[in-house]
Amino acid sequence: MALSRRHALLAGTATAVVATTGLPAFAATPAEPHYRIPVDPGDTPDELVAKAAKVRPTKRQLAWQRLEKTAFLHFGVNTFTGLEWGTGDEDPDVFQPTGLDTDQWARALRDGGFKLAILTAKHHDGFVLYQSRYTRHSVASSSWRDGRGDVLRSFADSMRKYGIKVGVYISPADENQYLDGVYANGSARTTHTVPTLVDGDDRAGRDLPTYDLDATDYGAHMLNQLYEVLTEYGPVDEVWFDGAQGRIPPDKVEKYDWDSWYALIRALAPDASIAVSGPDVRWVGNEGGMARENEWSVIPVKDTGNGKYDYALPYDAPDNGSREALVEAHPTAAALQWWPAECDVSIRPGWFYHADQQPKSVEQLTDIWFRSVGRGAVLLLNVPPDRDGLLPAADVARLKEFRERTDRELPRDLARGARVTDDGAGSRTVDLGRPLAVDRIRLAEDIRLGQQVEQFVVEAAVDGAWRTVAALGTIGAARILPLAAPVTARRWRLRVTGSRSAVHIKEFGLYKSQV
Ligand code: FUL
Asked: What are the sequence ranges of the domains in the chain?
């Protein structure tokens, strides 16, 4: 029978999660104890720093961090109406991507060096790009492909075919469900069985994994859509929850059932990172693709209820992780959490395609790359498909040029195979064997052991003396330093001058760009 494998996933707290049969226990937050370390009101500044030094990423976060370059695809009714935020009552028949070719998307992204792509399966308007049982505001109501079109299916198949991981953007804000009286209808949180079968449900009688979860009416709607996406289009590697409310009136606020949504994702897609209104990945705080000069992955967070933790300091605080920031956040912080930054930005001015807009230049994209990937964040670059359902030729060419350019920025690590001396106190010297010109430096900490470096200098032995070529703060997962001019030296030294705990340098690469 349908409910033969029922799991009670949540009982009001993030950790009270019980699997009744067969499957392992699921938690709304990662099980690793060092991912989120509670702070106490009485903690001294030194105790806060000592706790920060002990925070570690989860395996899921480590896998996400390695992706470095990920892509966004904003596509939906807005592509055809010219809007950035839809209304929820648009005619689904406007959606007519007659030349849809998701293989073309995948090839362009692969050639651009992107490792994961996230499609707007549902934006704020509520129009969904797959065949859902829970809304009529979808591709099924368009005459495109006689109502049988499925962009999510096509996208997921193409990405996998070209070795790109699949992510889904599912907007919590939903104008269509608001107009239907489901979103923000004031309903109480009650226990829902997910999936909630509909009349004539094609899944009836199948041995489905079934979950009991607390949710409002709208929360249950989201759970049922998450269930469809994760069970019918998986494996999914990133679920992206935006924080914006769209055009829904500001007083119509739905308190989202984050705990239940997270628990269902953990159950059905255990490898998926949950971003950015989520526990695994943090929004960097701007939509320009720019990480902070010193970006920390250990962040003070506060508990905002329903299993959601949020920034204890403002999301765009210029400093959200230094010693000073830990102290500043202390009165409101509940914990210190590994919460690495994702830098989202669009290749064009809009998130959706608009015929009168043009893609950014290679110089702009390269600058964004240095300020995102080069500061220990992951880049999430949006490339919007056009009304034919294709990535515009200009954008495809730009992605390729961008990839070629970043390859030329760091063409060959001159320090590979060189003699390396570690003094054990945060200093590493590289002897290149002969003087070589260097104008790019790539550093990384072994973040499996946390993020520890607070200050460092890179020096080159020039005319018999150590000369400082760079002096900065954090290193973290990656730090790419472009030097203003090439420096020629045989011996190079990284000296960590401030750290929270023992430092583990994973990478000290020296490059001569060919740009
Ligand atoms: C924002 C949304 O409101 C935009 O439409 C877009 O999806 C962007 C990535 O996030 O908050």
From this structure: 67-294+341-409, 419-511
- Ligand 1 center–CA 244 separation, angstroms: 7
Q: Residues near 464 by Cβ (< 8 Å), separated by ≥ 6? A: none
Q: Does domain 67-294+341-409 have CATH number 3.40.50.2000?
A: no
Pocket lined around ligand 1, Cβ cut-off 6 Å: 84, 242, 244, 344, 351
Q: Cβ distance 484 to 470 under 8 Å?
A: no
Contacts of 166 (CB under 8 A, 6+ apart): 116, 117, 119, 155, 156, 159, 160, 233, 234, 235, 236, 237
Residue nearest to atom 2 of ligand 1 (CA): 244
Tokens (6 digits) for 183: 């979103």
CA-proximal residue: ligand 1, atom 6 (nearest)? 351
Measured from the Cα of 352, ligand 1's closest atom is: 5
Q: How far is the CA of 290 from the centre of ligand 1 (A)?
A: 16
Q: For residue 351, which atom of ligand 1 is closest to its CA? A: 6
Cα 245 to ligand 1 centre (Å): 9
- The one-digit pLDDT tens for each residue of the chain (515 residues) are 233 344 544 433 333 333 333 333 445 455 688 999 999 999 999 999 999 999 999 999 999 999 999 999 999 999 999 999 999 999 999 999 999 999 999 999 999 999 999 999 999 999 999 999 999 999 999 999 999 999 999 999 999 999 999 999 999 999 999 999 999 999 999 999 999 999 999 999 999 999 999 999 999 999 999 999 999 999 999 999 999 999 999 999 999 999 999 999 999 999 999 999 999 999 999 999 999 999 999 999 999 999 999 999 999 999 999 999 999 999 999 999 999 999 999 999 999 999 999 999 999 999 999 999 999 999 999 999 999 999 999 999 999 999 999 999 999 999 999 999 998 778 999 999 999 999 999 999 999 999 999 999 999 999 999 999 999 999 999 999 999 999 999 999 999 999 999 999 999 999 999 99
What is the position in ligand 1's atom list of the atom closest to the CA of 120?
7
515, 408 Cβ separation under 8 angstroms? yes
Ligand 1: distance of its center to the CA of 77 in Å?
15
Output the residue whose Cα is nearest ligand 1's atom 4. Answer: 351
Within 112-182, residue ranges assigned H as helices are: 151-161, 175-179
Domain 419-511 has CATH 2.60.120.260: yes
